[in-house]
User: Fold these one by one.
Assistant:
Number 1:
Amino acid sequence: MAEPEDISWLDQRVDKLARLEKSRTKRNNPLPLSAAHRRYVNAAGDVRLRLAYHLDPGDAILYEILHFHLSSRTQRSEASLKALSHRAMAYGLRQGGSLSDALTGAGAAINLLNDELRPENTQRDFQAIQHQRDILERSLARYGEIRSTAQSEGWWDGIPSVRRDELEEHAKLLTRIRDNVRRTQVKAPSGP
C-alpha cells in the first residue's frame, strides 16, 4: 500500500505500527471462543482491571467496574465484594483524600447498602446498614469539606471545568441516592 507523499517517514512508521497492532488484536476466526480461551480472556481482563484499580483506588469508575465484574461472576464471592467496598470506603475517608476518593467511598457504601436492602435479603445486618449509612454521610460530607477548601484556597478553579462538572454531577447523583436511602425505613426485628 503506497503511503501519501506529504506524511513524514516517522508518521508513516507510526501508522504502520498502529495497523499492525490492530491486526494483531483483531479476531478473525469464524468459530466461537472455546471455553478455555473464554476463561483466559476473562482472567486477563480481571488481572488488568485489578491492576488499574490498584494503581488508582480513588477512581470511581474503576471501582464500579471492578465491583460489577466481581458481582457478575458465576461464583460470586461476597467476601471479596465486601473487602473491595470496605477498602474503597476507608480510602475515601482517609486524611489527605481527594474529591474523587470521597465520592468513590460514598459509592462503595451505597453498593453495600444495596446488597443489604435487597427485598430478597431476609437476614439483614442492621448494625452494618447503620454503619454504611454513616459512611455514606461522612463520605459526602468529606466531599463537601474538600470542595469548600478547594474553593477557598483557589485550586477549585484550577481543576478543568469538564472535570469539575463530572465531580459535581457524580456528587448530585450520590446525594439523591443518599436521600432515597434516608427515606428507606429499615426496622430491626423486635423480640428477644
Number 2:
Amino acid sequence: MGAVAQSSPSSLPAPAQRDLVVVGASAGGVQALRDLVSVLPAKLPAAVLVVLHLPAQGGSALPAILSRAGALPARAAQDGESIQRGRIYVAPPDFHLAVVGGKLALTRGPRENGHRPAVDVLFRTAAQSMGPRVIGVVLSGALDDGTSGMLAIAARGGVTVAQDLHEALYPAMPRSVVDHVAPDHVLSAGAIGSLLAQRCRETVDISAVPSVRSQLRLESAMAEMDRGTVTSEGPTGGPSGLTCPDCAGTLYEMEAGDLLRFRCRVGHAWSAESLAVEQGLAFESALWMAMRSLEEKAALGRQLAETARGRGTTLSAERFHVMSEEAAGAAGLIHDLLSRVDIRLLGTPTGEPPPAKHTCSNAGDGSPETAAE
C-alpha cells in the first residue's frame, strides 16, 4: 500500500488526495470507533490515526478491537514509522501521537487538558504536516479535547467531522466542535465511516494551502519536546494570573477562535473548561486535606487535655479541650460542605440531558449507542 508522503507545497504535486484521517475519542468512544471502522473498505486510500484517552499504566486492547471490527488492520503506532494507507494506527498509553514530516512520532510531551495521548496534539500536528489532506473526526467524550486541534485542521483547509450529538454516549466533545468549529459534517459513527470512504477519494489543490501560523508551529513543537520552546520567552499571549495544575507555572492565554485556552511555559495546555475541572478537583482535595488536618488537631487536643487532667493542671486541660472542640467543629463544617455541595461546583463532569437534535445534510439515523467502552 502507498505511503502518505510529507505534505509541503515544495515537495508535493498539486492536486493531492485526502489521505489522512485523524480520529479522537474519550468516554463512550470504543463503540463509536467500532461502528466507524466497521464500514471502512479494505482498500481505503487513506491511513487512519486514532487517539483514545487511556490510563497511563498498562496496555491497550484497542488495536485488536478495531481489527476485529472491520476490514482494516489496526496496530499500535510506532515512533518514526512511515504512514501507510489502508491501515489504522492507535496511540499507545502515555504517549502523544503526532505527525512529523509525514511520519508517525510518539512523544512524552506535556499533557494537554490533563491527557497524554491528547487528541489536540494529533490534530494539530497533522494539520501542520498535511494541510488540506487531513480529515478530522471527533467522537464521544467528555469535556472538549480535540476542539483546538479541529480549529487548526479547518484553518489549514482540512475536513471537519463530529459525531451526532444524540448518538454519542458522552456528547460534550463533539458538541464543543459543533459550537466552536461549525464542522463540515455531523453524522452518526457509521455514517462517518461511509463518508470517509467517499471523501478520501477526493483530490485537493495544495498549492493554495493556508500558511502555518506561528502559534500552531509553536504548539506542535512543544508537543514534540523541542526544548527551544521552553528556553524561549514562553507561549504567545499575556499572563492570565492563573497557575498550571501540573507544574504551578504561570498560564498564558492562547487564542483559538472563540475557545479560551491556556498554556504554561513548559507546554502544559488547558481549555478553560478542562482547567475548571482540574481546579475543582484540586479544591476538593484541599478540602479533604483540611478536614484531615483539623480532625488530627482535634484528636491531639483531646489527648493533651486528658494528659493535663491526669497531672491536675485544670487550666491547661480546659485550653486543650477548647482547641479540640474548635478543630472538631471546623472539621464538621468542611464535612458538611463536602457532603452537600453540588459536585458540579467542584468541576467534576456529570451526566447531562440529551442535547437538542443537530440537523444537517447527510445526517445519520441518530439511533443511540447500546454499548459503552
Number 3:
Amino acid sequence: MSNASERRVKIVEVGPRDGLQNEKLPVPLNAKVELINQLSRAGLRFIEAASFVSPKWVPQMAGSAEVMALIDV
C-alpha cells in the first residue's frame, strides 16, 4: 500500500483544444496563442494546445500547426 506522499495527480488543461473546438465561430489564431501562453504563465504544466483534424470537419481547429509554432514553450 502506498502512502499519501507517493500519490500523484496529473492535471491536464484541455480548454484550448476541447473547449475551443465547441465554439460556434472560429477563434482567431492570435487569441488561441495568447490563451495558451497565459495558461502556461499561470503555471499549468500540461496543456492540450491543438488538434490536428480536418478543418472541414472541425473549423475551429484550423491553424493548429501555426498555433504550435507560435506558442511560448
Number 4:
Amino acid sequence: MASVNLQEQHWTRLFGNVTTEPIPHYGSWTVFSLENTILRNFQGLRILQANEDLTILTHTNKFPQNDGTFQEKSWEIKKETCNLADGLLHPADPTKRSFSILEYGATSWFPQKLIPGIQFSVEFFLKYDPSNDSIGGIYGDNGVLDRIIMIREQLGDFPCEPLTPLTNISGSWQGEKLTMMPDLRILEPEIIPKLILDPSEGQNQTFFLPDQVVLTIPKMVKLGEAFQMFAGRLVTANRYQRLSVMYNELGNFVSLSNETFQC
C-alpha cells in the first residue's frame, strides 16, 4: 500500500498542474562541444496535454521548419502502464525513468543502469518560474562524453538572449538537500553547510553554460567506477539550485538529489 501511495504522489508531482488545454513551452535547443563552443542551435516546442481525469498525458515535440511547417513527434503516457514503482516510464525510452522531487514536473530523466556499448545520457530540469533549463551530457557507446545539450524554455514565446555564464560565486551560502531513492522514497532533508560549484573536487569536467548554469559531469563513464553528475543554476542573486544523480560501481542508479542554497 505504501508503494502505491508513493506512486500516486509521484504521478501528482509530475503532472498535477497539466491541463486539458495544450500549453506549449517555447525552447531554444543548443548543442555544445566539449570546448563549450556552439555546434548547433534551433528552436522547438514541448507540449503536455492531459485527459479529463489526468490518467493519460500526451507529450508532443514540435520543431519549426524553414518552409513554415513543423516536424512533430508525440508520445502517449498512460498512468496504468507508465506510472511504475521505480519511476515514470516515458515511451520515448523504456530503459529510462523520470523522477520528480518537487512539484511540479520532472526533476530528471535518467537511465536505470549504465550498459556497456550503449549510449548514455542524463537530463536535468532546473526550474524557476517562468523559465526551465534542461541540461545533459551525451556519452557515446564507448562511454566517452561526446557533447552537451541545453534547452532553455519559457511560456508564451521563445527565450531572449541568455544571462552570461557563472564562473564563480561569493558570499556565505547554506543549503538543504532532498534525496530521492530508486523506490520513490524521499529522505529527510539534510543541511549543506556551504556551496561549492564543483562538488566533484576536480574529478568531473565542469561546463559554465548560459543562464548561469553549471554542469559538472564525468569525462567518461564505465562499470567498476561509481560516479556522480551535477547541474546547478543561480536562479536569483541569493538562491542557487543544484540537482545530482549518483550511480554505483555496478552502473546502477542509486539516488537523485535536489539542493537549494540561500545566501
